[in-house]
Write a structure and sequence with these properties.
- The protein is an alpha/beta fold.
- The chain has a single domain, classed as Rossmann fold (3-Layer(aba) Sandwich).
- It contains 5 helices and 5 strands; from the N terminus they run E-H-E-H-E-H-E-H-E-H.
- Strands 2-1-3-4-5 form a 5-stranded parallel sheet, with helices on both faces.
- The longest helix is centred in the last third of the chain and has 20 residues, at 117-136.
- The N and C termini lie far apart (30 Å).
């Protein structure tokens, strides 16, 4: 049996905001296995609390539908906060109709559930790299990606 090759997210700090315990466990376990430092939050309020104490966060992966503060409100607050480095924001949703809210909130990508974990890691890696490259040239974040733009 061959060895499994996981995407390399070493050196990245991520927040995963997801209110479903099983989904949160799967996402955090996989992202940690890929080398990322992962902070788990059960809603947008917990995610914001991490941002207040952990300025080195590179990306946030958030469910859109959560109690107390949903993913759209969370990212709107993040984008409105000045003085912090650009942060990649990826939405996870089981409802393709929620896509329009993500555009106006400032998400960098939207992935439909059930999420392909390798695709999630690849998206995180590419967007963080683009963000770091663009930030060096004065941009604040990469452009949004439509989940319908996936290769066939």
């Amino acid at each position: 049996m061959g060895s499994v090759h996981l995407p390399d997210l070493s050196g990245l700090t991520l927040i995963v905001a997801e209110d479903t315990d099983d989904s949160l466990d799967v996402l955090t376990t996989y992202l940690r296995a890929c080398g990322a430092r992962v902070l788990a939050a059960r809603n947008g309020l917990e995610a914001l609390a991490y941002l207040d104490t952990t300025p080195e966060v590179d990306a946030i992966v958030t469910d859109l539908a959560m109690p107390q503060m949903d993913g759209v409100e969370l990212v709107r607050k993040l984008r409105g906060h000045t003085g912090r480095k650009p942060l990649v924001a990826i939405a996870l949703t089981g409802f393709s109709g929620q896509y329009m809210d993500t555009r106006s909130a400032g998400f960098d990508a939207v992935l439909l559930k059930p999420v392909d974990l390798d695709q999630l890691c690849g998206t995180i890696k590419a967007l963080v790299q683009t963000s770091h490259d663009c930030h060096g040239r004065g941009s604040t974040r990469p452009s949004s990606r439509d989940p319908r733009d996936r290769p066939a």
